Amino acid sequence: MRLLLIVPLLLTGADAIQAQAPTQGPPVLEVRDLRAVPRDVADDVQRLFNARETRRVTGDFTVSSASVIEGDLVVVGGHLSVNGTIAGSVVVINGGIQVRDGGRVGGSVTVIGGTFATIAGGEVTGSARAYPERVAVDAGEGVLVVRDESDDERWYRRRMTPRSGSHSDLRLVTARTYNRVEGLPLLIGPRAYRDFSWGRATVDAMGVLRSADRFELKSENLGHLLRLELQVGGSRGIRLTGRLEDVVTPVEDWHLSDQETGLASFLLHRDFRDYYNRHGGSIAATAFVGDNLDASVTYSDEKWSTPLARDPWSLLRDNQDWRSNPVLDAGRFHLVRGALRFDTRNDAADPWSGWFVTGEYEYGVGKISAYGPTSRSIRDVNPTGRNAYDRILVDVRRYNRISAEGQVNLRLVAGGWLSGDDLPLQRRFALGSAGTLPGYDFRQVLPGTDILTCAGARLEGAPGGMRSPEGIPAQCERFVLGQVEYRGEVGGDLFGILDQERRRRRFGWGRRAEWVVFADMGRGWLVGPRTGDLQYGPGSFPGLATFRADVGLGIRLDDLGLYVAKSITDARTPLNFFARLQPRF
Amino acid sequence: MVRRALVFAALVLAQPVSAQRQPRLEFTLPEAAVLAKEGPQVRALDVVSDGETQNLLESGFPARLHFRVELWSAGRVFDAHRRSVEWDLFIYYDALGKRYRVVRVEGDGDRVTSAGQFTTFAEMVREVERPMRVALRANTQRSRQYYIGVLDVESMSLTDLDEVERWLRGELQPAVRGDGNPGTALGRGIRRVFVRLLGAERRNLQARSRTFVVR
Fold it and tell me: Are residues A145 and A36 in the same domain?
């Protein structure tokens, strides 16, 4: 039998209800028969809902220890925490209630779709009853319907929404990349989380097993990643994270994505990153507002060492040697890092509007026990090994749609040394290759003054051996890179004016194909007393005439982009062809 | 080495080349007279109609189709994003009832409604491919406007291990039995494993309406 209840309730809080009720009239509540709730209980709930003096709230609600609510209280879709006094009765729908030490409920407690608990000295004078089976609550204009969930709603809530309560599982996942130092890293171990009234606690304990050398169980193939995270709040709040790690980390991971780097290694025997081993721990605090804005501060204590390139399998050129992983600095560092991220892009994977800004400041102090080799006169070596530095890295991107068919995207990336000792090799920069200046090869040492990897200066044709150590490490202390691109649909016109009332042929697999025209400009440099065009004082900026630039064009078919780029500042540099699996930036 | 690369390329490309129908998203604008009163119709075609999706569904892996439709208008320099609407279609197989079920979810899971239960895969596909009217009306301003649609398709609950195991266990079986092309099966398996292991599993479709002016 259907039970119809008329109650004065809006799901916007008590104040709003009381303010609107006189002008809008009483809202209508329809409670259908509930499988798990007896009729008399439903009647009690109805009476409480209908009572004019009842206070009603939506979402989580806390009665603080100093608070006294004189009448009855209804909470819909949230957790009620009682630390103070509620003189009347309480109803909670689709939520839980905890009466804590010092908390007191003078009347009865009824929970539909949740649980009830008293903690320590919490007290409920009247009866307490809880029916955990969740119900559906449909809110309309002045109408509230309480009913059983349908099969589909129950399936969706149980299978597709983040699980509340607690959960644990054993995970086997890849690190989503493939490289010449590890092969394919696998992460194996348990993950568990538990929800509390204040947020969620998560624990990961993952072992790292690397596929290089056929998964042989030796120290180079083993690592770990332990994480404890406490999140306070939901869509906005604070996250506190502690980590213990023994992992292989890329020196610069902003050039190409993990997937592109992994595929290039696996398929083409080309690894576009250098790696070092981080072994230590960190604590971090992150404040976040939705998915758009977060800021974090991290303190870490790490030991750095350099893993050697090994010989993981690749599809092509498998019989060739891999590029050496450069020997980087070894030592121990204490790092304080501040990071900010602001993201208004409409689509993180393929944006066409919005801002994406990231900034990172790092202060590091430590002792280098073994300096990695560098080019000549690149840095001063402190005999004690003590090193203190700070550096910054900023990436600003703007995506603009200029017509139905085209967009213009801009990016400025800059970073480098700010003060202190010379940067460790793990914190230096290089430009060149598909992710930065595609008109130049990856780790290409330019003749004359090398402003892409900062391997020093040498007159063209001058005799001498290798200018850069094996593996050609990134050695620049500062860099700046500007990128601009126009992307338009194939078959479209530049500004879309002629598109009106026309239909276009389709190209591509899932989307229309796009053609891309781009230009990039940038360089790296060292910081110190002015030396030619390679080294500039801390307050100086290289002249634009010294920058390297390229132009290019390409076509994007779904996620696959095929491009050709040509340097316009080095005429003899050949055309470079390359592919990307996502937008250039 | 070259031969190995060619064989690999052939295997990886085998399915896209041989596939007869490509997944796509289509827009249909309302009649000119009611452009400001009705939203466009969106239709996702051939996104869940393949046998691979059917196998995944019947193995207990639901499919999720996430739609986002945006209304844009032309500006002096840059175009402006006006409004957008998002919703999901979830498809799962009820093994006990032997039915495919389609669930529509709007907002942040605030509104969950059934879009039907279907005894056959083909009936479910017809429902998913039915044109959907989007509640996103054009502005009455006299500037050029257009809609952009994005559809993300993914199989849920698959882990890397699931995928590798499925491939090793089952994907080659039809080929071994002679029900399918071994090259295609092998290529599909290799591609899927790479895609999964290296994290590029996203299937994304985009479409744009023609531009229009409300008169």
Answer: yes
